[in-house]
Amino acid sequence: MATITDSIKSEVTEIVYSFFAEECEVDIAQINENTSIINDLDGDSLMFLELIEIFKKKYNLDIELKVIGKYAVKHPVATIGQLIDMQLLIIEYENQLLELDQ
User: Fold this and answer.
1) What is the rounded CA–CA span in Å between residue 54 and residue 92?
2) Spatial distance between the Cα atoms of 59 and 56, rounded to a whole number of angstroms
3) What is the mean pLDDT of each run of 10 residues along the chain (102 residues)?
4) What is the DSSP annotation of 61-88?
5) What pLDDT, on the 0 to 100 scale, is given for residue 102?
């Protein structure tokens, strides 16, 4: 588990924006927290999995995909801002993510 700092928030935001700009072949300036991953970028769930792997390696996270899946069912992600918020929760809580709903 990690403490989320402003530096981590900025880093995660930058990685997410850059990732979607590259993967979806759009100008990074067109991406903001309200950008719809599916409707605006033609993104998909596989991209979310790729991002999880990037963050698992970057922050040495110990989290199972089934934990993220169970959390995501109750907290669906549609926008870039929601995705960033979820990534920050994953970094902060790792396998204890589901305990947030208790």
Assistant:
1) 15
2) 6
3) 92 98 96 97 91 94 93 95 97 94 83
4) ----HHHHHHHHHHS---BHHHHHHHHH
5) 80
52 closest CA partner among 79, 90, 85: 90
Instruction: Measure the CA–CA gap between 68 and 78, rounded to whole angstroms.
Output: 15
Q: Do 35 and 80 meet the contact criterion of CB atoms below 8 Å apart?
A: yes
Task: Quote the CA–CA distance of 17 and 99 in Å, as a whole number.
Answer: 28
Do residues 51 and 16 touch, judged by C-beta distance below 8 A?
A: yes
- Kindly write down the DSSP assignment for every residue of 22-48, as one continuous string: HHTT--GGG--TT-BTTTTT---HHHH
Q: Taking the complete model, does pTM exceed 0.70, yes or no?
A: yes
Structure tokens, 54: 């990037």
**Cα Rg for the chain, rounded, in angstroms?**
13
Q: Which tokens hold the place of 23?
A: 């993967």
